[in-house]
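A reminder before we start the practical. When you read a complex entry, don't treat the lines as separate problems. The point of joint prediction is that each chain is placed relative to the others, so the output describes one connected object in space. Small molecules and nucleic acid strands, if listed, are placed in the same frame. In the example below there are two entries. Take a minute to note the order of the lines before looking further.
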Amino acid sequence: MIGHGGGGKLSAELIENVFLPAFDTSPEAELHDSAMLDVRAADRLAFSTDSYVVRPLFFPGGCIGDLAINGTVNDIAMRGAQPIALSAGFILEEGLPMNVLGRIAEEMGAAARRAGVRVVTGDTKVVDAGLADGLYVNTAGVGIIPEGVDIRPSRARPGDVVIVSGPIGQHGIAVMSQREGLEFGTEILTDSAPLNGLVGAMLDASTDLHVLRDPTRGGVAASLCEIADAAHLGIEFEETRLPVPPEVAAACSFLGLDAISIANEGTLVAIVPPHVVDEVMAAMHGHEFGREACIIGRVVEEHPGVVVARTAFGASRVVDLPLGEQLPRIC
Amino acid sequence: MKYLDEFNDPVVARQLFAEIERITTRPWAIMEVCGGQTHSIIRNGIDQLLPDDIHLIHGPGCPVCVTPVGMLDKALDIASQPGVIFCSFGDMLRVPGTSRDLFQVKSEGGDVRVVYSPLDAVKLAEDHPDREVVFFAIGFETTAPANAMAVHQARQRGLTNFSVLVSHVLVPPAIEAIVSSPTNRVDGFLAAGHVCSIMGTRQYGPLVEQHGVPIVVTGFEPLDVLEGIRRVVAQLEVGTAELENAYSRVVTEAGNVAAQQMVEDVFEVCDRQWRGIGEIPLSGWRLSPRYADFDAEARFHVATMDSPESSRCRSGEVLQGLIKPHECEAFGTECTPRRPLGATMVSGEGACAAYHQYRRLDVTADPVPVTLSGVGGG
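Here is the predicted structure of the whole assembly.
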């Protein structure tokens, strides 16, 4: 159990027994107030932070630990950057079983190794029982943006193609299936995964990617709405082209949700110019996290700022930013 | 996927659209009673693809939308009381009472929880014997059996810390009220399939006979809705008025007898206020005296609370099919899903919310097909 250590000894024990082994830092490493990063020949850095308050801490296919690594890795990757270092901050609730913290730290270490990035600095604080739902995690990270890469929402152009890298809605449904008062049987696992490798493969195919987004909260709908808004352009897509796994469609059907508004943690939305689509799609299909990538629509000049879906029957509807979170705290 | 894909098939849909077009010779107004059907129609754009002569009127069948503001205020009052765990279906949380909603109560420290099943609320009461657990039992005949079962189980388990705030409503009296109204313009009805799965189809025969309106029991997937419309139009065109069941994979004439018995044991019929419409005689269920111990209104002393409706919200006219949502002056300006004046703008099944979500932009007047050929990949 985590006790109220008031600093010194407890923190030292946690670092030595839990975090250093999990994050592959040798016990002889010189511990300091901050990490030192070597960033030779980097003109531009991507820098991002995110806090993780998901409940429950463990859900089908993942936990708050790997989510906290993948989430920040992906935020950095959406600039086209390769992450070089992460920080991890923990707010621990008094009474949290030590083995739970250990498992989460191990999952974080494993996720960082999978993404090819190191956790180089961290912090822990302990708060009174009842204040932090077990634990909260914050991660931040920096990555190097390769030369010639300029990825941001306002670069979308009319005629650009909208790509989704894989099945949508799995993370949100996996977490919801475990929530108190809402348990339902499902085989759906979170899609939580680091996307920096996939982005690297896409950039190898063409550096002329216009926009990348990580459709987490609010799902693909929110990402498309934000891109349309930032670029002052319209986006149209065909509903039948959305890669919605049958289990997600079924869960959405009985929960009254729309898969396009459900959170993802290992899927990206890409907006690319038509002349590089073939190369980029081929690169995605050759990567483990892009095997099911598909084109769903395109950027248009009409209806600026608005996303329109064509239904299976040929009618159309506006796709809106989801209004807040009906079932909060999925990441 | 079984039971989803086969009722979304675009090829069959095109055949049904063509058939409806072929048999329609003059204007007809058809009301889909249930909010789930409204959502399916607007989301899939079914109304855009029907012949101009077919007018769909979105009925009062969204339980969240018709729960009266007074009942909301009672819920808000109870949820704010110390020691209470207030359980509700998720879409009630943003429905405005007179001055706030359940989300606000939650943010002010109230213990408001979303449950998917009322039996989860019973479990919460068992797990928290030191707390008062209240379940907001709303809905049509569809949700009533599970809500009744929750009360029944709570009594069997001897729980004294569980109670229900009941605001159940019934479909047949609402249809009766609509067809009897001097302003009625509905020629035929799509009855709500899930309600009929519980209650059977028998209650609708007398409505068909007395008022000469066709009623077709209809499901919720796009092809279900289209088949319901086709059958209503077919009857109207030849001048017949019959009760038909187009949802026979779920609905039988007798319905679910065990569920009906559970409901009859726990509830009794009462007059009920409908938000935006007013009181409809014998149109609701309340707890029967046998279960008076579980009545949250009595336990928390809110039975006599009364609240006036917003004067600016025209949801009553929307719910009766007298205006379309966007014909209300407040639509999209004073009244949005973020700041709703009335409940039809809140629930995903509310007609105003469906119009706001899917139809704000009139891109449908001259649909241009999206062609993705020539861009490679996918």
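Discuss with your neighbour: The two ends of chain A are 24 Å apart (CA to CA). What might explain this?
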